[in-house]
Amino acid sequence: MSTPLPDWLQDLEFPLDSKMGFVMHELTAERVVGSIPVEGNTQPFGILHGGASAVLLESLASMGAVAHGRPQGKVAVGVDLNITHIRSATRGRVTGVATALHLGRRTAIYEVEITDDEGRRTAIGRLTCQMIDRPGEPEHS
């Protein structure tokens, strides 16, 4: 049984994610799941572009951090991204699962695993986000 996506998500725009065909499947502060198609996101040799995997990773982890910070009036900005590419993907979709490692007042850290349609790991990585006040709102101590 899947959890419905939060209502506030529809108020946000994701231009890059939209261009890549990104679909959000699950979103909580603790776990985020989403996917992109390989087709349209390849490098010249027909395999998934490493940058596309990095965008998927950062999008998933950042949205988890946004979900974490929302109740405190915070948004998330990525400050450290690490990704290791393990296997090529040439067709279908790749799915990322971001799992929170640390949810703090000032930082949120996520580990992300990306797999192909056969469940084979294509990339792993980590994103550290800094939690900042929403633009235009007073600072919280």
TrEMBL record:
Signal peptide: none annotated. The keyword Hydrolase applies. GO terms for cellular component: cytosol. One of its GO terms (molecular function) is 1,4-dihydroxy-2-naphthoyl-CoA thioesterase activity. The keyword Transcription regulation does not apply. Keywords: Hydrolase. CDD domains: PaaI_thioesterase. Residues 45-122 form the Thioesterase domain. InterPro entries: HotDog_dom_sf (IPR029069), PAAI_dom (IPR003736), Thioestr_dom (IPR006683). It holds the Pfam family 4HBT. Belongs to the thioesterase PaaI family. This is PaaI family thioesterase. The lineage of its organism: Bacteria, Bacillati, Actinomycetota, Actinomycetes, Propionibacteriales.
